[in-house]
Structure formats: C-alpha cells, structure tokens
Design a protein that fits this description.
- The chain has helices at about 10-15, 60-75, 115-130, 145-155, 160-175, 215-225, 235-245, 255-280, 290-295, and strands spanning about 25-30, 35-40, 45-55, 90-95, 95-100, 105-110, 185, 195, 200-205, 210-215, 230, 235.
- The protein is an alpha+beta fold.
- It folds into two domains: about 10-105, Phosphorylase Kinase, domain 1; about 110-295, Aminoglycoside 3'-phosphotransferase, Chain: A, domain 2, CATH 3.90.1200.10.
- The strands form four sheets. A five-stranded antiparallel β-sheet has the order 1-2-3-5-4, covered by helices on one side.
- The chain is globular.
Length: about 300
C-alpha cells in the first residue's frame, strides 16, 4: 500500500487554506487500504479528516467529491467535503488529491436489529434518489475487475482454481440475473467499516468509491454480505432486520426477490475478487493473502432468501 506521511506543517497549510481555526494536532486514522487518512484537531476543538488519495487519479477524486456532495445535499447522511478558500474541494500536492471532511464521532455500526433496520431505511432512500448527471454505470468491483484479473492471468500464465471458478460463475450469473432489474444509485460497499453509528442507528455513510448506477437489489445483498454473516454462517435475523427497514421505504418487486440468491452470489464473488486482486496480486505476501477464501467458503451456504 502506498502511504503518504504528513507533517504538522503540511497539515497546517491545508487547514489554513480553508480559513478554519488553527491546527492543534494530527494523528493517523486506522483502517483503509487505498488512501492515507489523518484526524486533525483544531484549536477550537473542531475535528477534521484529512484524506490523501493515493490510488485514485485527480479526475476520479473530483468525480467522487461531486457525487458525495450531491448525496449530502439530498438528504443522505454522509459528510460534505469541505471547500477551500479558492472554492475547490481538493488541493493538489505532489500530484495527489488532498481533501478535508468533518470528523463524525461514533463507532462502526453494529449488526443488531435497530442498527440494521436503520441502515435498510437509509439504503432504500438512497435508492429512491434521482441519479445525478454524470453518475457512472460501471461497478468497479464487478465485471470490470473480473476481466482485469482474467487478462492478467492470460498475460502471466497465472490461472488459478479461483480465477477459473470466477470465470465460469461470472458467465452463469450474467445469464441468470438478466438486465431487467430496477437500477439506480448504489453505494456498492456498505460494510461495517464504511458506516458510522451509535449502538442503535446509522449516523453517516462513508467511502462512496464504488458509487455507480446499477442494480438496486444487488446493493442490498452486498450490505448483507458485509453485515449479515458471523463465523462463516449467514444470520437470518440480520437479513430480516435489514430487509424490514428497507421495505418500510421501498418494496422489492417479485423479479428482485427471485434474483436475490444470484445477486448475493455475485456480490460475494465481487468481494472475493477484490481481495484476490489486492492481497494476492497487488500487495502479495501479507497476512491477508488468503482473505478472499473467506468469501469463496460462503458460496455453498444456505441463504435466508
């Protein structure tokens, strides 16, 4: 992982460019595999998150900031990017985008009934929003990533059991899911470390790096992939809570309900593929090399839908 070390002077210059209070302290923020994150505490006790986008181009960051601002301005609970005095949402330093966000106090969302019901409601409201102009239609952890992995395997003669299975599954799932399911804005990666909450409800959604226009029910089951499993087994009560919250706002139609098992399989394989890319190819020889197997081991489990 590329990581950018930030000095107190560097961070002070970024804060000064916003016109906010003077910087008091800086500390690294744990988590994340694609960016460098720091908590900045100002002299007026305001806390900000400084993010340096190590793995996204300036164009990609600008797109994500535009999308996040649109969501925040339309009622989605997510932090609004802070503008600098020049009116921009990012500063460019050493070719990388540096951004600031309000720090949201809280904890990773728990998987209890009230928390998942709250998350289901928020996700349904997100799905009902009119997609903004310029929203991409490519889910980056799906078929695009699959094809990238297949291409690398061809070039390096690196076909493995996992990649052979993924290629077969991808063809079968594309045929079974079809193209007629309702689409709209999806987050694409609502896992516990992307949701800040209290013990009972959601406070803020984070990291919309997978945001795109895609199948709504796919987004819902992806959330279940993140929140609904424990000790390698699906927890039916967690699905019931998530679905109840969701359907209190937006009802799934019959086609969506029938497609849930296939969509969940695709979501599970998408996470497996991302982990394979990140920890087998991109960052090999770490303690996370076999993390993708957590997902493949779920494929033969009986689901609560």
């Amino acid at each position: 992982m590329a990581y950018t070390e930030v000095s107190l002077d560097d961070a002070s210059a970024i804060v000064e460019a916003t016109g906010l209070s003077e910087l008091l302290s800086i500390e690294k923020l744990a988590g994340g595999w694609a960016n460098s994150n720091y908590i900045l505490t100002l002299k007026d006790n305001t806390k900000l998150v400084l993010k340096i986008w190590n793995e996204q181009s300036l164009e990609e960051v600008e797109y994500l900031l535009t999308m996040t601002s649109y969501l925040a301005n339309n009622g989605v609970p997510t932090a609004t990017p802070i503008k600098f005095k020049n009116g921009e949402l990012m500063m460019i330093k050493d070719g990388l985008a540096w951004t600031l966000l309000p720090f949201v106090e809280g904890q990773w969302l728990e998987s209890n009934h009230s928390s998942l019901y709250s998350l289901g409601m928020i996700q349904a409201n997100l799905h009902l929003l009119k997609p903004p102009k310029g929203l991409k239609s490519n889910f980056s952890m799906g078929n695009t990533l699959f094809e990238k992995l297949f291409s690398i395997a061809n070039e390096t003669h690196g076909w493995t059991d996992f990649l052979n299975m993924l290629q077969t599954e991808n063809t079968l799932l594309a045929e079974s899911i079809g193209q007629d399911l309702p689409k709209g804005i999806i987050h694409g990666d609502l896992f516990p470390d992307n949701v800040i909450g209290t013990k009972e409800k959601v406070k803020s959604l984070l990291d919309f790096e997978e945001i795109c226009h895609d199948v709504l029910a796919f987004d819902l089951v992806m959330t279940f992939v993140g929140f609904g499993w424990e000790n390698g087994q699906p927890v039916a009560e967690r699905w019931d809570s998530l679905l109840a919250g969701y359907q209190s706002i937006r009802k799934l139609n019959d086609a969506e309900i029938n497609a849930l098992p296939a969509l969940h399989r695709l979501a599970t394989l998408s996470i497996a593929a991302w982990r394979y890319w990140q920890f087998v190819i991109n960052l090999p020889n770490t303690e996370h090399t076999d993390r993708y197997l957590e997902m493949t081991e779920r494929l033969d489990k009986e689901l609560p839908f």
